[in-house]
Design a protein that fits this description.
Layout (H helix, E strand, L loop, with lengths): L2 H9 L8 H15 L7 H13 L8 E4 L10 H11 L4 E3 L2 H6 L9 E3 L5 H7 L3 H11 L7 E4 L3 H12 L6 E4 L7 H15 L3 E4 L6 H19 L17
Parallel strand pairs: 2-3, 2-4, 4-5, 5-6
Antiparallel strand pairs: 1-6
Helix pairs in contact: 2-3, 3-10, 4-10, 6-7, 7-8, 8-9
Length: about 250
């Protein structure tokens, strides 16, 4: 393990807690969540985090896991794929600033960036939303290949990413939780369709709720899984052949 890895392991704490009081609160909160949500699989960890993020025990039933990795197409596949990408220091790309701000800076060495701000000329020329134009512009730069792509706000960003996947783009994992009443549900359904059709691992949910906080929380849990694997706290296999890249 490198010195930088040791440093961020010392600083890292679940739910962003860094002081003893904060860590006690975080641990108590998650203990309460585990009373209502199973704690048996990697997918359960994401369900728990969704419940904690949304403050709703029933939200665990709304999370969907699709796609496959080299170990199979079970519910854990997107979690394994996302954690493996974090271990490989893949890029983490969010749709907007708020989601980027919610992604922890501890427990990983991944570059975290936002799509919004790219594709301004394309948006002006076509009239499409800035987030959709940003996704298309980044795709032209192959930015999404092997990346963790997180969408927490813009349904049009999810639609654009789905089109990119259909045309051959292969993110490591997609976390898509855009919120709202206009095409939000449909955009997540579209992500699930291309996820299942092309095997791209994806974590989504059903219903109108969601948002930046949920998307960031689920992405953070992928980072937590990777950290637990790296430190030996998690014994689950993340791939059939890691090749020693998680050192």
């Amino acid at each position: 393990m490198t010195d930088s890895n040791q440093e961020f392991d010392r600083e890292y704490a679940d739910l962003g807690a860094t002081t003893q009081n904060a860590m006690d609160i975080a641990e108590t909160s998650m203990d309460i969540v585990r009373q209502f949500v199973p704690d048996e699989t990697l997918a359960d960890r994401l369900r728990q985090k969704s419940v904690h993020s949304m403050g709703d025990i029933e939200f665990q039933h709304l999370i969907r896991f699709t796609g496959a990795d080299d170990l199979g197409d079970d519910e854990d596949a997107p979690v394994r794929a996302g954690a493996r990408a974090v271990l490989d220091e893949a890029a983490v790309i969010t749709d907007i600033t708020m989601v980027k701000a919610g992604v922890t800076g501890r427990g990983h060495n991944c570059d975290v960036s936002k799509a919004i701000g790219h594709g301004k000329e394309l948006a002006a020329e076509t009239g499409m939303t800035r987030t959709a134009a940003a996704m298309l512009e980044l795709d032209r730069e192959d930015a999404f290949e092997g990346a963790v792509v997180t969408i927490g706000n813009a349904p049009t960003a999810a639609f654009a990413l789905a089109d990119c996947i259909e045309q051959g783009t292969r993110p490591a994992v997609v976390v898509a939780n855009p919120v709202g009443f206009v095409k939000a549900e449909e955009s997540r359904e579209r992500i699930r369709e291309v996820s299942e059709a092309y095997g791209v691992p994806a974590i989504t949910h059903v219903g109108r709720r969601g948002g930046s906080g949920l998307a960031a929380a689920l992405t953070n849990e992928l980072i937590h899984v990777a950290k637990d694997h790296r430190t030996g706290e998690l014994e689950d296999d993340l791939a059939s052949d890691r090749g020693g890249t998680d050192a």
